[in-house]
Amino acid sequence: MSTRRDFITKSLVTVGATVLGANSVQALTNEDLFNKISVRDNDIILFQGDSITDSGRDKNNLNPNQTGAFGNGYAQIAASHLLNKFAKNNIKVYNRGISGNRVPDLLNRWQTDTLDLKPTILSILIGVNDFWRTMDSNAQNTPAAFKSQYQKLLDETLKNLPDVKLIIGEPFGLKDVKHVTGTWYPAFPAYQEVTREIAKEYKARFIPYQNIFNGSLKRAAGDYWTTDGIHTSLAGSNLMAESILNAFKMPNE
């Protein structure tokens, strides 16, 4: 396994077991244990994932830092903010999300769409389709298989990019908004738990999108934040962008 995984196994797991108790997986994602990501000169930031990241991007435009290459979702909002705040650092920001993708799809295109770009900061949001296709297309999958595939993806990443800073986003769904029905439960949360475990295992920043969206329901109904329980409205995209930007140390912080 990778050095990063070995480190987590030997140290943070012990800390979680002895200090944080049963809720250690969630607790280990707190800012107290994982420092914010510092942006350096010439950093390459890559957003990867499925349709939530894709968000209608122009797939013929593979250039960094261009509006059309980002679609109209959270990645575009987050990228525009990063490019503004770090204008002096000559950063490049890419979006390579593709609608409908599951982890096996990422594995199939990882060399071209990730490794060849040599990102120094890599954000991944994947998992909702890995579960959803078992509901609407009779696909065969389990949380254990999902985890094994995700580990393979990250092991390959760290083999080629040992110093990359990882951000793992939690797949989310807002119950009783169109596609996300009661039939998703209790199976879907097991896939979400895998992403928390993965973030802990690989010492990645974890974005708990489900909790973030659940909290947003105190301000507005689910169909205000998403169009169908999964894909975000303009407000939901901004909520996601705010959340991922919080993983970065901004200038003068």
From TrEMBL:
Residue span, SGNH hydrolase-type esterase domain: 49-237
SUPFAM superfamilies assigned to the protein according to its UniProt record, in alphabetical order: SGNH hydrolase (SSF52266)
Pfam families: Lipase_GDSL_2 (PF13472)
GO MF annotation terms: phosphatidylcholine lysophospholipase activity
Record InterPro entries: Ester_Hydrolysis_Enzymes, SGNH_hydro, SGNH_hydro_sf, TAT_signal
CDD domains: SGNH_hydrolase_like_2
PANTHER family per record: SGNH HYDROLASE-TYPE ESTERASE DOMAIN-CONTAINING PROTEIN, THIOESTERASE 1/PROTEASE 1/LYSOPHOSPHOLIPASE L1
Name under which the protein is recorded: Lysophospholipase
Organism: Sphingobacterium hungaricum
